């Protein structure tokens, strides 16, 4: 892992545009290439990674502000906001362990470089790139014309991974 400034690259798009699948495939491809990858996923809804009835769930229900679950395989830290504002992406990034690159799914309005995922079945077909100068490429499942930024086939994961490496200056020395 490099001791360089944290590399962040985003995957953005409308609901059902293929963001999660693209993120998943990029993680697998970049990891297979030897990179240490972390991800941040933004959710617009309430979510729970815990199950009702578990000890950790009961700790949170009792009022714990943070609950860590630790095993020999993984650990997780849950932080209850309890009315506080949602932390911004920069704050979340500071909480991650060092890695080669952080892939960020969602966070449409943040200022990091992004690729826009587009699928015909997406909630909207309005191009986000028209109003976001941080979108530096498009990955689509259909022909896209009249763009001034690179356009990739949504399934051409190798080319997209090459682009992410080049764009973020992620290169083996």
Describe the structure.
It contains 4 helices and 8 strands, in the order βαβαββαββββα. By secondary structure, the protein is of the alpha/beta class. Strands 2-5-1-6-7-8 form a 6-stranded parallel β-sheet, covered by helices on one side. The longest helix is centred in the first third of the chain and has 14 residues, at 19-32. The chain is globular.
Write the layout of secondary structure elements.
Layout: E1 8-12, H1 19-32, E2 37-41, H2 55-61, E3 66-70, E4 75-79, H3 89-94, E5 101-105, E6 114-118, E7 135-140, E8 151-153, H4 157-167
Parallel strand pairs: 1-5, 1-6, 2-5, 6-7, 7-8
Antiparallel strand pairs: 3-4
Helix pairs in contact: 1-4
Q: Which short descriptors sum up this protein?
A:
single chain, 173 residues, alpha/beta, six-stranded parallel sheet, two-stranded antiparallel ribbon, 4 helices, 8 strands, globular
Sum this structure up briefly.
This protein is α/β, with parallel strands linked by helices and 173 residues long. It has helices at residues 19-32, 55-61, 89-94, 157-167, and strands spanning 8-12, 37-41, 66-70, 75-79, 101-105, 114-118, 135-140, 151-153.
Q: Give the fraction of residues assigned to helices.
A: 10-25%
Our Rg estimate from Cα atoms comes to: 18 Å
Q: What average pLDDT do the residues reach? A: 90
Q: How many H/I helices?
A: 4
Low-confidence stretches: none
From the N-terminal CA to the C-terminal CA, the straight-line distance is 11 Å
Percent strand = 15-25%
Secondary structure: number of strands: 8
Global structural class: alpha/beta
């Amino acid at each position: 892992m490099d001791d360089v400034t944290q590399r962040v690259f985003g995957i953005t798009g409308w609901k059902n545009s293929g963001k999660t699948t693209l993120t998943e495939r990029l993680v697998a491809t970049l990891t297979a290439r030897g990179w240490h990858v972390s991800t941040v996923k933004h959710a617009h809804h309430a979510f729970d990674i815990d199950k009702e009835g578990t000890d950790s769930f009961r700790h949170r229900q009792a009022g714990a502000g943070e609950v860590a679950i630790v095993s020999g395989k993984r650990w997780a830290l849950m932080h209850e906001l309890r009315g506080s504002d949602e932390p911004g992406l920069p704050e979340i990034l500071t909480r991650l362990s060092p890695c080669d690159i952080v892939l960020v799914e969602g966070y449409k309005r943040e200022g990091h470089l992004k690729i826009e995922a587009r699928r015909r079945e997406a909630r909207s077909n309005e191009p986000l790139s028209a109003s976001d100068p941080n979108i530096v490429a498009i990955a689509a499942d259909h022909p896209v014309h009249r763009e001034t930024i690179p356009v990739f086939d949504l399934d051409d994961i190798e080319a997209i991974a090459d682009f992410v490496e080049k764009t973020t200056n992620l290169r083996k020395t």
